[in-house]
Design a protein that fits this description.
Blueprint: H1 7-16, H2 21-27, H3 35-40, H4 51-54, H5 61-71, H6 78-83, H7 103-109, H8 111-124, H9 133-141, H10 147-173, H11 179-193, H12 204-214
Amino acid sequence: MKPDSSWYWRKLCHLRGKFSPAEVKNVGVTGIFKASKLYNNTLSQHPVGYHQAVWCRLFIPKHRFLLWQVVNSQLLTRDNILSFCIPLETLLCPVCGFYNESHTHLIFECYIPKKVIELIFAWMGFRAWPIEFTGWTVWLASRRPGVISSITNMILDAVIYYLRRNRNIYLFNGFTWTTDYLAIDIMNIIQYRLFIVKNRKLTLQEQRFIGKITM
């Protein structure tokens, strides 16, 4: 290698010995070489059954990203922060102050999530998902494609986002929204989002469901 070779060329030469010719050919089989695909092939990947229920185009992007964090238990709840050996004054939930904060408590056990979810279920007309963490993740993985299924997932997505946002508002600003206000906010954002599907060809059941939650 020449002494005046660029850092980029040096890096390429360094990587040359880390991949076999077969691996390089595999990512360029379509005629277009994709470095990202070559890199991803070096990672140990564990497919999960709930990815399609999370990464749906109907969802608001920031909502689905937060749902992905929750379903993988990656939020910085106080029990997770403690696992990083970061000292905390307390592990108690910043909203209720009675129980340790965890993903299960944040979404299902704290008094505000319980009340908000009940209000949302009443609005939808049925109990849409399990209200405990393990059963909920299993339910999410078993979801099937369809308009009603996607809308139900989108509502769940919005519920989790607004509950997390309300927690952060209380933590940093010292106040929390009422459960009625949170539920109405969730309903409004869903109704706005449903304008996307109103022009699609829908079954009678789908039309009735959308009509019920947008009236």
